[in-house]
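On clarity, I found the account of how folds are encoded harder to follow than it need be. What matters is that the chain and its backbone geometry are given together, residue for residue. For the editor and my fellow referees, an illustration may be useful. For illustration, here is how one protein appears when written out as sequence plus structure tokens:

___
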Amino acid sequence: SEMCIRDRYQRRVREHLHEWIDLIFGVKQQGKEAEDALNVFYFLTYEGSVDIDAITDEVERLSTISQINNFGQTPKQLFQKPHPRRSLPSTLSSSFSTTSTSSSTTALPASFSSLPPPVPPSSSSSLAVQPPSSTLSPASSSPSFLPYLANQLHPYTLLPYPEKEIAEPVGQIKILYERSYPLSVNKLFARKTLSKYIGWKYPDNCFRVVAADTEKVLNVQESTHDGPITCACVSDDCKILVTGGADSVVFVHKLVEDSGGVPRIKTIKGLCEHEGAITCVCVSRPYSLILTGSEDRTCILWDLNRVKYVRTLGNTLFDQPVTRAAINDVTGYIATCCGMVVSVWNINGDLLLTRNCLVQITSCLFPSIPEWVDTTAFLITGHRDGDIKIWERKIEVTNDNNAASSSSSSSLSSSLTSSLSTTTRTKNSLNLTRVLQAHQSPVLAITLSADNKRLFSGDQKGKVYMWSSESPVEEGQNPLFAKITFHKTMLSG
């Protein structure tokens, strides 16, 4: 059928995509490997093969330009190492036999046994997975088996697809041109092109600016902290770097480029209000805010423009140090995580809600979705046990009516007049709508694609997963944040 042909074509493309990348942008574009692959072209087509401005003979210069226009130009070589092959599901074999008889039964993996039955997103009933009319055997729950369950599950079921694996714990994940680029802890990308990153926690207590593709150190600068740097954050526009240290000081730096295009760190000011080592820091350029947490169990908001103290959240000590925090660049909401408890505040420092997640929180993220959009994704948290939880904000409005009566003092027989006073109260709470389970270690980094339809997560073991749904969904619907009741997507390893 047409679907089978399309699936085979897509599979073949995925199997050989890395080979095409090597030929066009990678190691087989130039040099000995290009010769072995018969992938050589006229020398003028390669970038940097000739300097037009250095040619003094006008005739030769025009001739060279004419040849370049005639032969075309090869793309810039982006990769110096063979591109890794994309992780693919194993081929469906007889062990995964499928029959479409109505009398057949289905043995779904134990991971999916707790999933509720499928209903349209508009329905108010609970969601679960109905066994499809086919036999899937054996009941394997390996990553290679999961994609073939995509069409058997509810269209809004998210499945984990292994993206990458690095040798160190994942500290940051950035998305560029729909590809994920993870960095280990104590490193942050310093350019929006992801070509350079800043690293710290070296023995000499210095910053290092490193080229991301070659790992070449481009710049080394001494840290302004009196002791080791404990945390750092780079703004989304890659112009501001904020660092926190064991010396309880927060430093605000500006990232500027030298004549060679290498980022350099220019310190603006040090902020001294905390009395313990800084445990977390985050920056919001739209709201010009810096948020810092400390081992002294305080969480402070700073003005990024004036580089001044604004307020301490709650004006009280937290039960534990704030280890993770996030600022919503769209609404201005602030999330602080202390152990297993997450609290949400507005930009004025008023506490909106508190929720015990029962498991230690190791990462958190606000989706960049306007508040008026109907979505279940208010907050996403990663946890020590490897779970990723998607939370919905629920607002309950109650009215308290109090009748107040008064009597006229001029006469006992005068009529009574009453006034009705109404007090409106709102109660905020977090409701759990999804649990995504694939990681076997604490989830340290979470990010979303630009269209908010794919979620990327990285853990302490260096594994990066992409969460997505391969099943077709209704136009305008987002499978990640569809309006459904709580269910699990689980991968047992």
